[in-house]
Amino acid sequence: MITTNKMFSAPNKSKLVKRLFIFFLFIAFTSCEVEESFNDFQTNTAVFNMDVFEQNLIDYVEAGGDSPIGWAYTISKNGNLERSDAFGKARNAADGSIDFTLNKEINVASVSKFYTAIAVMQLLEANNLTIEDNIADWLPNSWTIGPGVNNLSFKDLLKHESGLQSTNNNFDVTLGYQGLKDCIETGVVNAKTRNYLNVNFALYRVLIPSLWSNLEGSPAIDIENDANTQFMYLLYMQQNIFDRLSLPLVGCFPESRDVSTLYYNANDGSNNGGQYYGSWNNKSGGGGYFMTAMEMAKVNAYFEYTEILVTKDQRDLMKLHRLGMDVADPADEIHGNYYGKAGSIGTSSDPTVSQGVRTQIVMFPGTGVDCVIVMNSQGVTLQGTTSLRQMIYDAYNNAWVQP
User: Fold this and answer.
1) Which residues form the Beta-lactamase-related domain (predicted)?
2) For 95, how many CA atoms within 13 A lie in the half-sphere containing its CB?
């Protein structure tokens, strides 16, 4: 029995060894094929290159040989600052020659709308409201409600689809308290399609205090009083956005007149004086915050990667409807959705002489990258476009290279 078993088991061992040898040879061969295929896939797939993106931003801003008088950029990755730099002057020689830095305040213009939209999302949730609810009940009782206003929603304002009548100039008049009151009295007289109007967000200078006043523990708020709405709007923003990020004293009032950033045209020589922007308190909501590039980058990071400012659901809703954000051409969004907000103020429609500011924030969730660019100059010849937002998109899209 023992002999038979040995005779029987010996041939089986030999076959098993052969089979195992063939099996492992097959595995080794196919593994090489898979590895080669994977390597081919890697080789043929472009990847984002941070170095190229950064250099693109610099090159594209300076492409026309007429760099801003002063400008700065930040690039963050997953909420952490990766690259940053600043160039030129906050004030040129004629105005006292002060360097522009990453920590120099600048009027961020309409990027302010993004911050206002964050506050709106917070207060709607706190009041058990949605963006689809109407604004009429939250307006001052003394205001005359014009046609269509009773059907005007928070979303309509946040998307610039209100149909209200206003202009994007003479801000002290059109965006002041009386101007807002007059706008509501005129009512919805245009088609409720997208029409970018600063008044849509200036109205939140009244609506944010009104929503806040309805919450338990809120301070005394009189939305019938212009000065009180200004103060309470700024107070809410400070306490519920900037204080949460340890950013003290962020507001719509500039630094001291003798050291504040001034605003130029790229063609201005060293002897051309710049524009001074004073307080925007009386016309805030849609513009006017004075912040540094680093402060703007910090808000981006906390918005995108934490729930300190908004919940994930609120953030997703803001992105879905581009609330307080730019509406971009999907054809430009080659590597997933891009989200951002532009800002611009100028003294003239002629870019060769207009003095002013340009700002832009952009978030690229697909790579965890976000970017801030601020410049105290109009009239800069950008690479292939007049849009700062488009320039950043191009710099990003062209930073995908073969590994």
Assistant:
1) 99-174
2) 22
